[in-house]
Write a structure and sequence with these properties.
Blueprint (H helix, E strand, L loop, with lengths): L1 E2 L4 E3 L11 E6 L2 E7 L4 E4 L12 E3 L6 E3 L8 E7 L4 E7 L1 E2 L2 E10 L4 E3 L10 E7 L2 E7 L4 E4 L12 E3 L6 E3 L8 E11 L2 E20 L4 E3 L11 E6 L2 E7 L4 E4 L12 E3 L6 E3 L8 E7 L2 E14 L4 E3 L11 E6 L4 E7 L4 E4 L3 H4 L5 E3 L6 E3 L8 E7 L6 E8 L6 E4 L7 E11 L2 E7 L2 E8 L4 E10 L6 E7 L2 E6 L2 H4 L6 H4 L2 H42 L1
Parallel strand pairs: 1-10, 11-19, 19-27, 27-35
Antiparallel strand pairs: 2-7, 3-4, 3-8, 4-5, 6-7, 8-9, 12-17, 13-14, 13-18, 14-15, 16-17, 18-19, 20-25, 21-22, 21-26, 22-23, 24-25, 26-27, 28-33, 29-30, 29-34, 30-31, 32-33, 34-35, 36-37, 37-40, 38-39, 38-41, 41-42
Length: 550
């Protein structure tokens, strides 16, 4: 903390710079001073940010420390020191005494909305409220003039149709956030009373998080949001603050460091030479965590969740990513949106505990902790164990998230005939009862003919198929989810019959009925014939008797 009008020195913590040192000082992402020892270049950028630093910056040529003279409230904020990119990065929070200053960090998932709170319950008649992003005006309220204004066309229009001011409190809402909204926001409130100006300043760091989920074994691309890189662009990709890939467009250098972190990324990293996006192939649970993208000083966080699939009733082990826990290590496993603690290890007090009675006892007698690695095993899994598990520990700065997808065992689909009478084709139906998260499909050989899917509902599925009686192709009905499948092959000769004759055309019952009817007709014919013969004989005998009498 420093008084207004005083000078302050931001210490680099170096006693002496080396010949190849590169030092950069930034004020809330904006470069204000740099030293390149290799070229013996010492530069201060007075003209940036409305010239608020003009004639106020001094670099120490031996240590690289930065001095700011004649401090004003405009110099209040966060300063970032970077030495040789990754040898050292420091953040220094400078508060100018004499005004009320509030600073905090806010996180939001990409695509969601976020409200920057003005900390006012109601705007007063003489309030002047101003919102800035990286020093640029984006919104303003002047109560006296009855003016509520958003400047959403500034900065390449990144805020267009995304800013909303609360007319009662002065809070600012940003909708449909993107990576371009990540950075430093400033709110200033001036309250004019009796010709005295009282100031309230807020500094907010908005961290726009890109959350991505990927099935274990699949590939995933972390998108830089660039359509094409430009000359001078420098891109760094980090995992938990360890450099894993970098691009220097000017030097035409594209490098992946896939041997770091015990080689977990070996042969898995691919850089897009046009956009700078990073693809990770054949993902494993050890790749879950926080990735940082730095483009020309701007930092973006990606949270990668790896989904592990397991069959209901099986056991699954969620890795802690440790080979061995050390004396001071601690691990906490949490489950669900409520982040309920279900297991923990603390080596110092030698505590190993599972809390399997939480969540209505769904984990009772199912949790096992590996005392050496801290990995968690869940036995006899059910659909109640489906969800995300968060690993907190003292090694990584942020927790990693591994999601478990528990799938029910699949029944074999049933094929039945839907034909009621003879025709030129056969109507079939394939069905499966009480299924969820599945796809039901008809195949002709290896070619997909049709399919139907269901997500989280447990319902019955049916899929029709029309085939010709003389069709010699092989057909099959397949029920599958991401980890298993069941197949039923079609027996056309059993379910589909031709109309070449009555027996083959008709079903067994109808054939019997027709045979009985045929027999009855035959018997009736015989009876009629016998009756006719007897009648004729009787008539003839009667005629003979009549002739004899005459």
């Amino acid at each position: 903390m420093v008084n207004k009008g005083d000078s302050v020195t931001l210490d680099s913590d170096l006693t002496e710079m080396k010949d190849d040192d590169l030092i950069q000082w930034r004020f809330e992402y904006t470069l204000i001073a740099e030293i390149n020892k290799q070229f013996d270049r010492f530069t201060v950028y007075h003209d940036v940010l409305d010239e608020r630093f003009r004639d106020r910056l001094k670099l120490d040529n031996q240590t690289g420390s930065l001095t700011i003279t004649n401090i004003t409230t405009e110099h209040d904020g966060c300063y970032k020191l970077k030495i040789n990119f990754f040898r050292k990065t420091s953040f220094i929070r400078l508060t100018v005494y004499g005004e009320l200053n509030i600073s905090f960090t806010l996180s939001v998932n990409k695509g969601d909305s976020v409200t920057l709170d003005s900390r006012l319950t109601e705007i007063k008649y003489d309030d002047l409220i101003q919102w800035r992003f990286e020093g640029t005006f984006i919104a303003e309220i002047n109560v006296t003039a009855e003016r509520f204004t958003v400047y959403d066309d500034v900065l390449d229009g990144r805020f267009r149709d995304r800013l909303k001011l609360d007319n009662q409190t002065g809070s600012l809402t940003i909708t449909n956030t993107t990576m371009k909204h990540d950075g430093f926001y400033h709110q200033q409130i001036k309250q004019i009373k009796k010709q005295q100006i009282k100031h309230l300043r807020q500094n907010l760091i908005l961290d726009v998080i890109v959350e991505i989920s990927v099935n274990e074994g699949d590939s995933v691309t972390l998108n830089s949001d660039l359509t094409e890189m430009k000359d001078g662009d420098v891109i760094h990709w980090m995992f938990e603050y360890t450099l894993i890939a970098e691009i220097n467009v000017t030097a035409d250098r594209f490098t992946v460091h896939d041997d770091v972190l015990d080689g977990r990324f070996r042969h898995r990293l691919n850089l897009n030479k046009q956009t700078g996006s990073l693809t990770i192939t054949n993902t494993r649970t050890e790749h879950a965590g926080v990735y940082q993208l730095e483009i020309n000083g701007m930092m973006i966080d990606f949270h990668l969740n790896v989904i592990v699939s397991v069959m209901e009733g099986d056991s699954v082990t969620i890795s802690s990513d440790f080979t061995e826990l050390k004396n001071n290590d601690w691990i906490r496993w949490k489950f669900g949106n409520e982040h309920t603690l279900i297991a923990e290890i603390s080596k110092r007090p030698n505590r190993f505990a599972v809390y399997d009675d939480v969540h209505d006892g769904r984990f009772r007698d199912r949790l096992k902790l590996d005392n050496q690695t801290g990995s968690l095993t869940i036995t006899n899994t059910t659909s109640e164990h489906d969800g995300c598990y968060k690993l907190d520990n003292d090694y990584y700065m942020r927790p990693s998230v591994i999601c478990l997808a528990v799938y029910a065992r699949l029944p074999v689909p049933v094929i039945s005939s839907n034909s009621s009478q003879c025709s030129s084709s056969c109507s079939l139906v394939c069905s499966a009862v009480n299924v969820s998260h599945v796809t039901l499909s008809w195949y002709k050989g290896n070619s997909l003919l049709s399919s139907i899917s269901v997500s989280d509902l447990s319902i019955s599925l049916s899929l029709p198929l029309e085939v010709e009686y003389q069709d010699k192709n092989t057909y099959s009905c397949v029920l599958n989810n991401p980890i298993s499948n069941q197949t039923q092959h079609l027996d056309i000769t059993h379910l589909c019959h031709t109309c070449s004759d009555s027996v083959h055309c008709c079903g067994p019952t109808e054939a019997v009925i027709r045979l009985v009817l045929s027999a009855m007709v035959g018997v009736a014919t015989v009876i009629i014939l016998v009756y006719d013969i007897r009648s004729r004989r009787a008539d003839r005998d009667q005629a003979q008797i009549h002739t004899s009498g005459t």
